[in-house]
Amino acid sequence: MTESWWSWLLPVEVPLECGGELHHLRWEDGSLAALDHEDPEGERALGALGAERPACIEILDAWARHADDLGVLTLSSRGMADPVQVEVEDQMPGRGMNRIRPARGVTSATPAAARGGSGWTAFAPLGAHPMMQGPSPGPFEGITKLMALGGAMSQRLVATVIAAWSDRVAAGDEAVEGHVPTLTAALYGRVTSSVRSWLSDAALEVELEMIPASESPSINLEGQLATVRLPFLWLSEIWVRDLSVVLNWFVLRTISSDQGELQLLAISPNFSEVRPITIRLD
Amino acid sequence: MDPDFDAELYLRLFEERALLDQRQWRGRAPWDQPADEVAAALVAVGALDADLAEEIVDQYALAQGLRPGGRQMPRMRGFSQPPGKQVPLTAPRVVATGWTLEPEWGNVRIHYVSLGDRNTALAITATESAGQSLMHSQGPGGMPITQPQLTDDQGTTQIAHFSGGGGSGGYNGRLVTPLPLSKTTGWIEVGESRIELADVEFPVRALVEPLPSMDPAVRHIWRRLSTFHHRHFRSGSSIDLTLEAFVAAGVLAPDDPLIEEALHVSLAMSGNPTSGATIPEPWASLVAGTHRFDGPTGAVAISVVTAPVDGTVICAEGLISTPDSFQVSIVTSPGELNGSHPFRTGVKNVALAWSAEDDRGNHHVGSMNGWGGGPDLSEGSIEFWPPIHPQARELKLVATATTERAVITVPLPDWDTEE
């Protein structure tokens, strides 16, 4: 059985002011759900008839719109060394979103490793809702609105986008062809940030070749230049799980992942050894 | 061009490095926009679609803005304006006056009067006899002195409003009426002072011609070097990025002598020593004129409308010469969208690049100095430097667009007798 992309990603829950009350959004098993809204579909229908759309529903819809939006990867953090601060005030001028303000305290819930999931259960993509209305979003507005939910939830959105495109790359989807520069840049920024952190060298130059997943990944250092060959899949398998560096070894790929046990292929900091590292949840 | 060169990837990786590495900004002036520089270079040689380049630059500009200490300035763009349409422009009647009024609070030099179809404007320099006296003075009827009443010989009266700027050294700008006075009036009264309008024929010529054939990369390099954000700030500090992009794209060889020449010019234009390197014209005369303050004082009526220059019609109203520079009042239609932002390079080379050359071989460059308007019509002034050479008797003002340029030939007066 193929492992789900959200394996090893903990659930995330954020409070949100919605209709004057404190509601909660929860991401788990690849899906975002509005915990305080039993019938999002019904509320969308009411919104189409002129009722005010609840903030939680707006977030669900924005998430669906941007679930494969590569702009998310452009705007979001490249890693620990690249903090991103998004406030509501960062929304584009004239498009006030004051109701959408994450309350303090982003929480991670219980581990969900290897839990089965059914994907997008709490809501469906925008295209499935012809009655859905509202102002036409600006090109970046929806993304920054989602990023304002906080770091952990923002990371889950990034993971979602990366997973969508990893699948397309793996499937040879023709949509990939027109987005290779964007995908390469997304990989480059995150690899560079990870390698620099790993080698504690913020000035290190990095050259990246984005390779097919079938080829062997590698990394070499010559002077101040690190030459890296990694597939886009590295983001999905390694980076989003915060596994880029384990025990000060740089992780190149996943060898296996099953039942709470991860076997990774990693390279030592002096570049002399490439060995498997096994992580197991007991 | 290198067939394997991926311009979009080059720009995106440049942006990624800029995002991760604040060193990209060090040593650069705050108005320099490195990504704009790279994107504009790639667009100029046809390596990258302009709309895609702008989309990438805008998105990364937002990404920069979301980082702590990120530059917010780039986000000033991102709101696309509808393309402007060309509206008919007619040349105003322009009379250079040389009049000086001497109200109680100081004096007002009226360089010229422009009588147009849309309004009447007086180009002035106001000097206070005491600090703040201008702004606190009142004219006849208690009106602010900055809003004088103008009357023509037909009895038409309009209140003019000042637009311009200045400080303790005086105020430069225009007094503009909301509606026009008579174009044929023989005089204008400014408050209680009457200015006689005696037309003097100055045969100004304007022609539009195609740009000489030139390699797009070479043309872009020289255009970038002559695009000045502000007279006092100079330009050229990011030209290295343009050159790197051209080498990467394979449109310039790494050892092309043009690279060294452009870098020398950039250094010289930024006010830095160039280790004795010879700077070619027109740059040599620009650098040589940096410290000249011998420009004549006076004004010249221009009053000319050009044919469309790559779709933009230019109306040049008048020229004001001062010891350190000269200004030309301009109206364009459509308005210059990209050129309306003084601190953005822009990805597309849509703004007019201004330069001038006199009959003695001296060169000048121009930059925007006050600009306003909308998509259809914009107006403002172009400030040129170095100043006009005292012995120059003819000046060619050149507005360069993408494929064409307008050349406005202005006979210069004998300044000694003018003043």
Question: How would you describe what is shown here?
Answer:
The complex is a heterodimer of chains A (282) and B (419). In chain A, a hairpin with a 2-residue loop joins strand 8 and strand 9. Chain A is elongated, with a radius of gyration of 20 Å. Helices cover 28% and strands 23% of the residues of chain A. About 17% of the residues of chain A have low confidence. In chain B, 21% of the residues lie in helices and 31% in strands. With 419 residues, chain B is an alpha+beta fold. Chain B has a 9-stranded antiparallel beta sheet. A 5-stranded antiparallel beta sheet of chain B has the order 1-2-3-7-6, with no helix packed on it. In chain B, helix 1 runs antiparallel to helix 2. The relative contact order of chain B is 0.15. The chains are: A alpha+beta (282), B alpha+beta (419). Chains A and B meet through helix 3 and helix 6 of A and helix 1 and helix 3 of B.
**Low-confidence parts of chain A, pLDDT < 50 over ≥5 residues?**
89-137
Task: Write down the overall mean pLDDT of chain A.
Answer: 82
Low-confidence stretches of chain B: 72-79, 337-343
What is Rg of chain B? 23 Å
Give the helix level of chain B as a range of percent: 10-25%
Q: How far is the N terminus from the C terminus of chain B? A: 56 Å
Instruction: Tell me the greatest interface.
Output: A-B, 28 and 21 residues
Number of strands of chain B: 18
Overall pLDDT of chain B, averaged? 83
Morphology call of chain A: elongated
**How much of the polypeptide of chain B forms β-strand, as a percent range?**
25-35%
**Helix- and strand-based class of chain B?**
alpha+beta
Q: Beta-sheet strand percentage of chain A?
A: 15-25%
Query: How many angstroms separate the termini of chain A?
Result: 21 Å
Count of structural domains of chain B: 2
- Total DSSP E strands of chain A: 11
Which structural class do the helices and strands of chain A define? alpha+beta
Strand order of the largest sheet of chain B: 10-18-17-14-15-16-13-12-11
Biggest sheet statistics of chain B: 9 strands, antiparallel
